[in-house]
Design goal:
Keywords: Glycosyltransferase, Transferase. One of its GO terms (molecular function) is glycosyltransferase activity. This is Putative nicotinate phosphoribosyltransferase. Residues 116-152 are annotated as: Disordered. The structure is a single chain. This protein has helices at 37-54, 58-73, 80-89, 124-133, 144-149, and strands at 10-13, 31-33, 94-98, 104-106, 112-116. The chain has 152 residues and is α+β, with helices and mostly antiparallel strands. The protein has one domain. It has a 3-stranded antiparallel sheet with strand order 1-5-3, with helices on one face. Strands 2-4 form a two-stranded antiparallel sheet. It starts with 9 loop residues before the first strand and ends with a helix.
Length: 152
């Protein structure tokens, strides 16, 4: 996915638009209330990854993840050796920098960035950003932000 020489990536999470937010246009000032990141970090990046990946036997964890990726992306699209190395590392190599929760943030201004803390795992920042932006989870931070902004 990235050139082998890549050792560091920074991914910005940026609310690009609020056109689908349930707000009255005449009352909206193109700002969102930033919140939900702490819950996402705890529920997904700590609890879920520990339970479903790091606390499982390595072969089982890698096999399960590899099977999902093969189904979603095609056989061999994800390097199983990288997954084994991540399991050996024992944690997600991420640094997350964020504006304080509750801050009012202009649309098109990134309230959070994700960067890798280990040169062997540059792909985790964009992966984590995509997870936080997904609307399929129970508590990703982006969907609540525009909704809460309607009441500010």
């Amino acid at each position: 996915m990235y050139p082998r020489e890549t050792t560091r990536l920074v991914a910005n999470f940026t609310p690009r638009s609020a056109k689908y937010a349930p707000v009255l246009p005449q009352l909206f000032d193109d700002k969102v209330v930033w919140f939900g990141l702490q819950g996402f970090i705890q529920e997904y990046l700590i609890d879920l990854f520990n339970r479903e990946f790091f606390q499982r036997p390595k072969a089982d964890a890698v096999r399960r993840y590899q099977r999902r990726m093969d189904t979603a992306l095609g056989a061999g699209a994800v390097d199983g050796g990288r997954l084994e190395a991540l399991h050996d590392l024992g944690h997600l190599p991420l640094e997350i920098r964020s504006l304080p929760e509750g801050a009012r943030v202009d649309i098109k201004v990134p309230p959070v960035t994700f960067s890798n803390t280990h040169p062997d795992f540059p792909g985790w920042p964009p992966t984590s950003k995509r997870c936080s932006a997904a609307k399929a989870g129970s508590r990703p931070p982006w969907p609540p932000s525009p909704s809460s902004s309607a009441s500010c």
